[in-house]
Amino acid sequence: DDAHDDSEENPSTIAGVDVNLKVASQNVFKVKAINQLGANVYDILKHEKLVLSLAAIQALEKRLS
């Protein structure tokens, strides 16, 4: 299942987010990189653009429906 529990960390992720993406996003104004467990309705509606993986969309659908 691609929408696995992100509590299982591996050395290339921080809170379920790729290390390179997390570090790079910290240098860009108004960019927030989070895993699907950290996403909430406020974050989704607040931002004009979202970039989501298919697994994140499926997990959010399951969690928020």
Structure description:
With 65 residues, the protein is mainly alpha-helical. It has 3 helices and 2 strands, in the order ββααα. It has helices at residues 19-25, 41-46, 54-64; strands at 13-14, 17-18. The chain has a two-stranded antiparallel sheet with strand order 1-2. The chain is globular. Mean pLDDT is 79; it is low at 1-7.
Summarize it.
The protein is mainly alpha-helical. It has helices at residues 19-25, 41-46, 54-64; strands at residues 13-14, 17-18.
List the helices and strands and how they pair.
Layout: E1 13-14, E2 17-18, H1 19-25, H2 41-46, H3 54-64
Antiparallel strand pairs: 1-2
Keywords:
two-stranded antiparallel ribbon; single chain; mainly alpha; 65 residues
> Span between N and C termini?
19 Å
Derived from helix and strand composition plus strand pairing, the structural class reads mainly alpha
The strand line-up of the biggest sheet is 1-2
Radius of gyration over C-alpha positions, nearest whole angstrom: 12 Å
Mean pLDDT: 79
Helicity, as a percent range: 25-40%
The number of distinct β-strands equals 2
Please tally the helical runs, counting DSSP H or I stretches of 4 or more residues: 3
What proportion strand?
5-15%
Broad shape? globular
Low-pLDDT segments = 1-7
Largest sheet: 2 strands, antiparallel
